[in-house]
Design brief:
77 residues, alpha+beta, Glutaredoxin, 4-stranded mixed beta sheet, 40% strand, Thioredoxin, Thioredoxin-like_fold, Thioredoxin-like_sf
Length: 77
Amino acid sequence: MEKAVFYHAGCGVCTDAEERFVEALDPNRFAVESVHLGETPERVGEARAVGVESVPALVIDGAVYHINHGADLSALG
């Protein structure tokens, strides 16, 4: 099973991206973790370390997919 992490800030753009993209991932293929960086600011460094520059972003097996633009990571911590 592939690991996917959805980093977001809870904004409207992020919520829409989660509904359109993350929820569409096959649960038999992907183990998805949703990380709200506004609620868990201690994980901003983790997101930055894997290459996330803005949210919403989906990371699948180390590949970062930036979806639209809700907020720069620098604004979150």
